[in-house]
Here is the input.
Amino acid sequence: MAAAASLLSPFPSSSPSPPPPRQSSLTLVRAPSSIRNSISSRLLFPPKRPQSTLKSSPISFLFSNNHCPSIISSSSFQKLIPDKLRSSFFSSVAESLFVLLASLTLSFSIFISDVGPANAFVVTTPRKLQSDELSTIRLFQENTPSVVYITNLAVRQDAFTLDVLEVPQGSGSGFVWDKDGHIVTNYHVIRGASDLRVTLADQSVCEAKVVGFDRDKDVAVLRIDAPKDKLRPIPVGISADLLVGQKVYAIGNPFGLDHTLTTGVISGLRREISSAATGRPIQDVIQTDAAINPGNSGGPLLDSSGSLIGVNTAIYSPSGASSGVGFSIPVDTVSGIVEQLVKFGRVTRPILGIKFAPDQSVEQLGLSGVLVLDAPANGPAGKAGLQPTKRDAYGRLILGDIITSVNGKKVTNGSDLYRILDQCKVGDTVTVEVLRGDHKEKFPVVLEPMPGES
Here is the structure.
């Protein structure tokens, strides 16, 4: 400590006279004893201050550090006092030198002490997010583990080596339905696949088997063998009480990108689209402006509470990319289909057992309704007595019955007929009104399931 004091003091305290002056612009001389005693008494015995003032004084805080003991003695300051200065001016100069030496001492003590890494002094300001941003982030984090990536593999034979290879022919999204490993997606995502692979949120890949599908509603159910702790079923909501304008969120894997979130609002309700596989209409479809691109098919559409309200299935775009008009199958329709597929492996839907002409052909004839082209004798309509379109002995075309209403509900095209049948069940008896020639007739028809679904 004495060594430190000797380094900080301009002249050693043990020397009776100062050493030869150094090359400096400041020359310090020894003050008279009377002035030394006066200044040293001020330094050693400063005026008393209130306790609160002493605690807040920066000098008292600096010298409270263990690394900074009071090593500056009164004798050292006595040698720093210039001669022939007035008492007030000398007092201010002495105090300034005292603060300077205190700062140097503190800097030296911090330099030689272990203060830890420099980043301990860096304070980062936390990121400020709005409440709606926090809710969106929470929704994405909570529902992402329920969304999966589906790869559709098809068998192809190499033209040169004739080797049989499995190559990806499509991809899409899906979501976990239950803890038994059932995955819900669109039928067009798995159509024509020889093998299916499901990638979970933790990037683990599982082989998938097809449980069943419904071509008419573009819904399919797969099953994977995965540990239950990796399966997080998505919360299922309802779609009957949806309103135009409420916020919706779509999670999927567009263009093969991992777990992408897009937001928007419900821009329309009770829309109708056609199934890509059968052309059969899908009613009560949800329209949204949330971006839905190739790869989003089969992914969930969520409301602001994170509940499933629809399955993303199609977009309206000539280019194939999102144009702000996307469609989702309502969850109320999907739930009933999934329950049947999981339980029976198929969907039992009633049919009339007829083949009908395209709507354009009927319009060209100036008629309104569904023209029956064929009605097999062993089908429901054939058993009831409906007549198909045929040719006479001279090759002239004889139009068959034209269905104009079912159960009193007007039928103007094939979509109307499908819409009415979707509200019926297998075994129901419906009254079919037809136009035969120039008069109308009514026939009771017992609805039957599709062949092979009995």
